[in-house]
């Protein structure tokens, strides 16, 4: 049986959501062998990805070296799933068609997960050398071409945050409201722009006037331990005021 190989970029401040998305897809492929090819983008905690099916490339690898690594280390690749986040190896977008063509040699199916807006890798690529293009975002429009295009929010994959490997902390404040509703805000596995802290600061203002509320904060697996502790301290302080 062939292999489904996921290729992502990952660092402490980038790619966590993309990794979690691919991990969730891999778990929904029962009976299929899966592996991850991870190219480092800046710092990375290798211990988090010390798995037999995880292969970590060095930060400065070129796309030709990456191609050679795939050729030497993986046989019978049924599907090569590319979810590129921070394409330092592909800054020259003219190389993207060549990269895809090279990888298609060793994969029966080539799947690319990418947006269709300013900054998307494939926007600058006239030739979509892939079998399936996935744009899992609200408002995506079908694109005609020699590939199957899966577009729209129904292809968005949300990690299962009930699983401990997808989160670092699960913190709850008590004091239910009589009339409650649920709101989910997700900022990725690493939240590099610190939106979690910003929303928490707004909650602090809100809770100073409205005490009956339940707040659950689920932190992605790439949050540092010290950052988790600081957020937890803030939530405990809020809880004590209620």
Describe the structure.
- The structure is a single chain.
- By secondary structure, this protein is α/β, with parallel strands linked by helices.
- It contains five helices and nine strands; from the N terminus they run βαββαβαββββαβα.
- The strands form two sheets. Strands 3-2-1-4-5-6-7 form a seven-stranded parallel beta sheet, with helices on both faces. A two-stranded antiparallel ribbon has the order 8-9.
- β4, α3 and β5 form a beta-alpha-beta unit.
- The longest helix is centred in the last third of the chain and has 17 residues, at 225-241.
- The radius of gyration is 20 Å and the shape is globular.
- The N and C termini lie far apart (57 Å).
- Mean pLDDT is 76; it is low at 170-177.
Along the chain, the helix and strand elements come as EHEEHEHEEEEHEH
Note the quaternary state here.
single chain
Round the Cα radius of gyration to an integer and report it: 20 Å
Count of individual beta strands: 9
Terminal Cα span: 57 Å
Order of the strands making up the biggest sheet? 3-2-1-4-5-6-7
Q: What class, by secondary structure content?
A: alpha/beta
What does the average pLDDT come to?
76
Q: What fraction, in percent, of the residue positions are helical?
A: 25-40%
Low-confidence parts, pLDDT < 50 over ≥5 residues? 170-177
Tally of contiguous helical segments: 5
Reported for the largest beta sheet, the result is: 7 strands, parallel
As a percent range, the share of strand residues is 15-25%
Shape: globular
């Amino acid at each position: 049986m062939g292999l489904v190989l996921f290729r992502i970029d990952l660092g402490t401040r980038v790619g966590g959501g993309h990794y979690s998305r691919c991990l969730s897809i891999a778990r929904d492929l029962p009976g299929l062998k899966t592996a991850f090819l991870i190219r480092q983008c800046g710092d990375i905690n290798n211990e988090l990805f010390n798995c037999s099916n995880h292969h970590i490339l060095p930060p400065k690898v070129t796309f030709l070296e990456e191609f050679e690594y795939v050729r030497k280390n993986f046989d019978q690749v049924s599907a090569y799933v590319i979810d590129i986040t921070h394409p330092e190896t592909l800054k020259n977008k003219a190389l993207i068609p060549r990269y895809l063509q090279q990888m298609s040699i060793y994969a029966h199916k080539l799947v690319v997960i990418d947006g269709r807006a300013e900054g998307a890798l494939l926007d600058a690529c006239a030739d979509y050398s892939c079998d399936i293009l996935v744009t899992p975002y609200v408002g995506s429009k079908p694109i005609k071409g020699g590939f199957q295009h899966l577009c729209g929010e129904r292809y968005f994959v949300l990690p299962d945050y009930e699983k401990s490997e997808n989160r670092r902390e699960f913190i709850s404040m008590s004091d239910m409201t009589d009339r409650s509703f649920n709101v989910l805000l997700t900022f990725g596995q690493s939240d590099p722009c610190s939106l979690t802290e910003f929303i928490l600061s707004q909650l602090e203002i809100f809770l100073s006037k409205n005490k009956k509320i339940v707040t659950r904060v689920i932190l992605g697996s790439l949050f540092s331990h010290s950052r988790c502790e600081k957020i937890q301290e803030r939530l405990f302080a809020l809880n004590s005021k209620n």
